[in-house]
Amino acid sequence: MKKRILSVVLCTAMLAALLAGCGSKAEEPAAAEPSGTEEQAEEPAPAEDEEPAADAGAEGGAKDKYVIGMSQCNLGEPWRVAMNDQIAAAAEAHPEFEIIYADAAQDNSKQIADIENFVQMGVDLIITSPNEATPLTNAVTAAYEAGIPVILLDRKIDGDGYTQFIGADNVAIGKQVGEYVANTLLPDGGKVCEIKGLEGTSGGIDRDNGFREGIKANPKVEIVAANNADWLREKAITVAEEMLQTNTEIDLFYCLNDPMAEGAYIAAKNAGREQDIIFIGVDGLPTPDGGIRSVMEGRLSLSMVYPTGGAEAIESAYQLLVEGKELEKEITLESEIITPETAPDLLKKYGGE
Description:
With 353 residues, this protein is α/β, with parallel strands linked by helices. It contains twelve helices and twelve strands. The N terminus is likely disordered.
């Protein structure tokens, strides 16, 4: 009997000890949750075979390389060659930019295909001077709506399906030329022949409208003929020859760019009439064959400095892509009038020799 009681007591003691041990384990505090300190918030280092994430830059969007597609409407105009050159020069300061150029050669279908190709390539940004506004509207707008920023240089499209437009005020340019003709070059009135650019280009339409508004200052100034030469000197020679043949009295040729004004001068010189006619252009490049020298050398009586906007486009691209800034919808570039008196100083100002 004593042995049985002892056995029960031992079992009871063992059971109590066991329960005490379990109870002490249950009363231990649970493991602490992370406190959110800087060290604990750090992400684990990537595995050895895992590529580290690219540096996002100060604004969280910068990359090592950006591809920019430049769709030029044509390279037949020296002014557009200068635009491409200025884009390339400005881009040299940004090694993260790669510029891909396309020349539409004044072909709307080619330029549409060029822009669509840039979209398929997935470029980071498109810069373009549309050949004509309406035919290029859908392609430009589609690229913009696909999420690719689009900067328009010099020429606009229909609507506002683009990121930014950079260019001078062509209406103001045309009006300033028209007022100078009305008040200074032809104060007693006279007959004017106008040679326009490619039909449907926004800049050409604006320069024409502005000029017609400007010459209203003198009702005796009359436009007797107008035709297109597509911005090209050789075509302007032919157009001017026809105007000279059909108009025995011409006091002034107003041409919407300098190469066409040079073409009109050549045609008039071939006809022996260049001494009796005033020639006006627009563009005012500081190059050896540009409008500033043409004024200095007496072939043109007037031109206008028309900035290409190439450097400004690259600056906008940098602000948008690298710095993450929002761009203004429109940047208006300043123009200056070129006369024989102002030409030498303007040549130096714009880097000519």
